[in-house]
Structures are given as structure tokens and as C-alpha cells.
Amino acid sequence: MNISDKILELDTYTYKDYKMWEGDWELIKGHPQAISPSPSKNHNKYPGKFFRLAGNLLENLSAQCECEIFYEIDWIVDETTIVRPDVMIVCGDNSDDYQKYPPTLILEASSPSTRMKDRNTKYNLYEMCGVKYYIIADPEKKSIEVFELVDNKYKSSLTTTFILTPHCAIELDVFNLWQ
Known about the structure:
- By secondary structure, this protein is of the alpha+beta class.
- The chain has four helices and twelve strands, in the order ααββαβββββαβββββ.
């Protein structure tokens, strides 16, 4: 048996298995991914500030906007892929306990241990699933990258106006939230 045969024998798991695990995990195409221990204060500052400011904007628009913001909840993409973005904005029916359709906006705070997954695996997953905006914040470099889905492909963007639905947009300068 060669190494490629062994790779094909790796166990894959489903949402049913995932629900039974202790600790913090994500599941990507059936393969478990441990979530790092609690992030540092510096790592949490940007997502926390984004959450507060975007949450306030959404609350003020509640009459015309059916969008909500969530911090670290599971998005069940399918039976073999479950991710837990740092922050997500979800528009539409939010009656389930966990997210079961693509959020409109996702923010991930990248760290040395998650950088490759955020820039590759999650970038490709979010793009493929139709997440309209993907924001990567890098607390070490104090940098922000915004990607907007255009013709089913992510394009780098400098937008500060996030059009969440035809009737709901928020204006938030994500590039200047480090202060």
C-alpha cells in the first residue's frame, strides 16, 4: 500500500459526528480542524469593534433591514462542512439555531496559525458558497482586506458601503477601525 492509498483511507466525518465532539472544531469537507485556543486581546479588538459598530448600524435600520450580526456561531454549509467565522452578517430568515445558508458578510481575524486557512480554504469556500463580502483583518500588521463577490469571483475592494440587500446598506470604514 502506498501513501496515496493511505490518504484515501482517512476518516471523514459529518455534522452528526461534529455535534458529539468536545472542544472547538470546524469541519471542512469531512475533515476535522481544531480551532485554536482563545484568541489574544489584540486579536479580538478588531472583530469586537466591527461587531459593535455594524450591530448598531443594523439596529438603527431594523425597520427596512432584515439583517443580523453574529459573533462566532456555526455555519452549517452542508453535512461535511461546518465553519465558525469570527463575525458574520446574515440577511433573511434567521429562525434556525445555527446558520444554514450563506451569510452576506464574513469577517475573519487572521493569526499566524489561521492565516493559510483564512486566505485559501475559507476564501475559496466563501467564494464558492456566494458570500458577498469577505473581510480579512490582520491584527499583527493592522491591515484589512475586503473582497467583494463580482460575477461569482472575489475581487479586492476598497468599499466602505456594504450593500447587504436591495433595501439595506451600512456605511462603515473598516480600514480605520484599528484606533
